[in-house]
Specification:
The protein is α/β, with parallel strands linked by helices. The chain contains seven helices and eleven strands. The protein has helices at residues 30-40, 62-74, 90-96, 98-102, 108-116, 166-175, 189-197; strands at 3-7, 13-17, 22-23, 51-56, 78-83, 122-126, 129-134, 147-152, 176-184, 200-206, 213-219. Strands 6-7-5-4-8-9-11-10 form an eight-stranded mixed sheet, with helices on both faces. Strand 1 (3-7) and strand 2 form a beta hairpin.
């Protein structure tokens, strides 16, 4: 499918899949969305303890990068697992220029280390941030009671409805520890109901720029 780099509303870039008219991040602001959904309403609920994170859709690595930056600021130790069936090419990663956008040019080598690290193995990216990249379909995830936090950042239900079903959210529910949290930019009623059907307690929260709401689910 045809892909191109576009500039979003906050000046940061993302990849657009033209055949789907779908982006890896919000066209209203890639960086703003990532911070709002995954950091503000996810990571910042955890303080002063080791955290295990599962990202559904490693994609461009933006969510992993900002999580690494937050780990340094908050003195957190994070074990991060990113699942991605179709890895993004390194030339596209370079074109996105996220370290420049975030004002952390000194982290370019670290960001490159994330993307060049070996798949299916634990990589120590920094002293307090490890990364395992897994190349597989989300439905193949089989970990149970392992993660504190899930970043659910799959392509939208409009183009990939099969990723937003009860079957997939049951996999997420099993993968989380008790009281574990899942956050996503999505807010569709069908998504909320699918989460609730497998046992999550779900709340609507104010969405990032360009979206009225987002969802946060807790395993109870």
């Amino acid at each position: 499918m045809k892909r191109r780099i576009i500039t979003t509303g906050d000046g940061s870039k993302t990849i657009q899949i033209e055949d789907w008219n779908e982006q890896y991040h919000s066209k209203h602001g890639a960086v703003q969305e990532a911070y709002h959904v995954f950091i503000e309403h996810g990571l910042r609920l955890f303080n002063n303890k080791p955290i295990t994170i599962l990202e559904i859709g490693f994609g461009t690595g933006l969510n992993a990068l900002i999580t690494l930056l937050e780990a340094s600021k908050q003195h957190l130790h994070i074990d991060y697992v990113g699942v991605e069936a179709f890895p993004v090419a390194l030339d596209e990663i370079n074109a996105l220029d996220y370290c420049e956008q975030l004002g952390v040019q000194h982290k370019e080598a670290t960001f490159l280390k994330m993307h060049s690290s070996v798949w299916e193995e634990k990589n120590e990216i920094t002293s307090n941030f490890s990364l395992i990249k897994q190349k597989k379909d989300f439905k193949e995830i089989d970990q149970e009671n392992l993660f504190d936090l899930v970043y659910f950042d799959a392509f939208g239900a409009r183009v990939q409805p099969e990723l937003w079903t009860e079957a997939v959210f049951m996999i997420m529910y099993k993968a989380l520890k008790q009281k574990g949290i899942l956050v996503t930019y999505a807010a569709k009623g069908s998504v909320r109901r699918a989460m609730q059907a497998v046992g999550f307690t779900v709340e609507r929260l104010p969405g990032p720029p360009g979206k009225r709401e987002m969802l946060r689910a807790v395993k109870v």
